[in-house]
Amino acid sequence: MRGLRRPRREGAVRGARRRGGAGQPRDAYRAGAGRQPWFRPGTRILVAGQAPGLRVHEAGRPFLDRSGDRLRDWMGIEADTFYDRSLVSVLPTAFCFPGYSAKGSDLPPPPLCWETWHGRVLEEIGDVPLRLIIGSYAIRRHLGLKGPVTEIVRGWHAHAPGTFVLPHPSWRNNAWLKRHPWFEDDLLPALQAAVRDALRG
User: Fold this and answer.
1) Residue 112, CA distances (Å) to 20, 46, 51, 115, 153 in order
2) Which positions of the chain have pLDDT values less than 50?
3) Considering the entire predicted model, what is its pTM?
4) In this structure, is the dihedral angle defined by the CA atoms of residues 56, 188, 166 and 42, taken in order, positive or negative?
5) Most exposed among 7, 61, 172, 188, judged by the fewest C-beta atoms under 10 Å?
């Protein structure tokens, strides 16, 4: 897939508990093979995110939460379009909820999932007209970019119109959105135009 980095190796998946208070990825992780991937070859838009939260993991449908509502608003599309896999495919950095840390926050996406599945999944999806890379973990994995997410997103012109880098649409980023009005004023109109173009085919 042009412009996206491939995993360097593949490993064996070892499934365990869905939730893991110990903070060990192999213990907190249910094998990706046991989940229903939300992608289809020939899709028009690829949404590359981080890892599902517990609610989304249990629902088996990506972005079925307030973050998803905001993401669809950013894209300018309704849920029926978003969940049509021939139009929009969702590929998280980890397919499963990785568990909670000792402080109660979500653990990072475990490398095991990326190393095991993503090379073959990206090959199966093939080239797509539009890619949305969401959050620091996905940005690092797909584009190889490190550094403050704000500065990476601020430089969105360098990747558009075929790729847009976005912060996570979580409610936790409400303050970030208020501090950076350029995101809604400049980036989102360009994103929505790119989404319309991609869906028209």
Assistant:
1) 15, 21, 12, 5, 27
2) 1-2, 4, 6-34
3) 0.80
4) positive
5) 172
User: Secondary structure of 13-66 in the HEC alphabet?
Assistant: CCCCCCCCCCCCHHHHCCCHHHCCCECCCCCCEEEECCCCCHHHHHHCCCCCCH
| Length reported for the chain | 201
pLDDT score for 151: 97
Cβ-contact 82, 75 below 8 angstroms: yes
Residue type, 8: R
Beta-bridge mates of residue 148: none
Which amino acid, 89? S
Q: What are phi and psi of 148, to 5 degrees?
A: -60, 130
Distance CA 196, CA 94 (A): 28
| Contact criterion met (CB below 8 Å) for 198 and 77 | no
Q: How far is CA 59 from the centre of its chain?
A: 17
| R_g of the chain, CA atoms, integer Å | 16
d(CA 57, CA 64): 9
Q: How far apart are CA 17 and CA 39, in angstroms?
A: 24
> Containing H/E element for 136?
helix 136-143
d(CA 152, CA 143): 11
